[in-house]
Design brief:
This protein is of the alpha+beta class. 30% of the residues lie in helices and 34% in strands. It starts with a strand and ends with a helix.
Length: 284
């Protein structure tokens, strides 16, 4: 896949029209809009195929585009169990706003879990959904680089309310404040997408492909014999294999092919985290 943007802003509509018409002629390429990165992605059978489509767009539809790498969709999480307080208090004539929570945050195997252990009505039951909603919204933008937060269990266990000033918005805001407070001690980190790859190559290139995979922070899981060669099964971080089709063709004199699929998120090595944060901040 490559990400494409029009060189001329007025060509936004012409791009989708051109791609749709070309796709009728050649259904073997894909057009995907990544909702998270807002990039328009063009996927083909290799760079030669993609360049042919881009050339057709330029010559037939008079649309010129800039080609970029697709952005990697990272996630954030926490590594430590912490307890944090969030208090939202506002007084401005008439009814005020008041919400107060204590929440325990800890790592989880689920994407998001919300529990409550409130005793004696410290926080009334009707505000529990507001606390959960406040956390879900807060988790959309993580503390390190603004990536969504996953694999966290949040337990509301205490707090207080005001019979007149408390309302849903106050408890939503209090929950978000508690999460922001918790992050200081929860050891936040960045997670990266890991891909499973099936790489089909002739026997003489297997050693090169395996050695190259190790340089990409990849792991070779196994091999199987197929007609005319081997299938190397491996896992690698998406950020390390974005231009893999070009490198594989170079390693195998144009004969290698591969398939890939997302399998899970894993923690990014510590020494790479700062670079990811800096890159994200430059783009935003």
């Amino acid at each position: 896949y490559v990400a494409i943007t029009p060189k001329n802003k007025q060509d936004e509509d012409k791009i989708s029209n051109a791609l749709q018409r070309l796709n009728i002629e050649d259904p073997s390429f894909e057009i995907v809009r990544n909702k998270e990165t807002a990039q328009l992605l063009l996927g083909g059978l290799g760079m030669t195929h993609i360049n042919f489509i881009l050339d057709r767009m330029r010559t037939v539809f008079k649309v010129d585009v800039t080609v970029e790498e697709p952005k990697v969709v990272y996630r954030e999480t926490i590594k430590k169990r912490v307890e944090a307080e969030g208090k939202h208090k506002k007084q401005s004539g008439g009814a005020g706003q008041f919400g107060h929570v204590w929440i325990r945050f800890e790592p989880s195997k689920e994407l998001f879990e919300f529990n409550e252990e409130v005793f004696g009505g410290a926080v009334p039951k009707n505000y529990f959904p507001a606390v959960e909603k406040g956390l879900i919204e807060a988790f959309e933008h993580g503390p390190l680089a603004g990536f969504p937060v996953i694999f966290v269990k949040a337990t509301l266990y205490d707090g207080s309310y005001h019979p007149v000033d408390s309302n849903e918005i106050s408890f939503k805001l209090a929950a978000a404040l508690a999460f922001r407070e918790s992050v200081k001690a929860a050891t936040p980190t960045i997670l990266e997408p890991i891909l499973k790859m099936y790489i089909t190559v002739k026997d003489q290139y297997v050693g090169d492909v395996m050695g190259d995979m190790n340089k990409r922070r990849g792991r070779v899981l196994g091999m199987s014999q197929v007609e005319g060669g081997q299938v190397v099964e491996a896992e690698a971080p998406e950020s390390e294999v974005q231009k893999y089709i070009i490198d594989l063709k170079a390693m195998t004199q144009g004969s290698g092919i591969f398939q890939r699929e997302f399998v899970r998120y894993e923690e990014v090595p510590q020494h790479l985290i700062d670079g990811i944060i800096q890159k994200y901040k430059q783009e935003h």
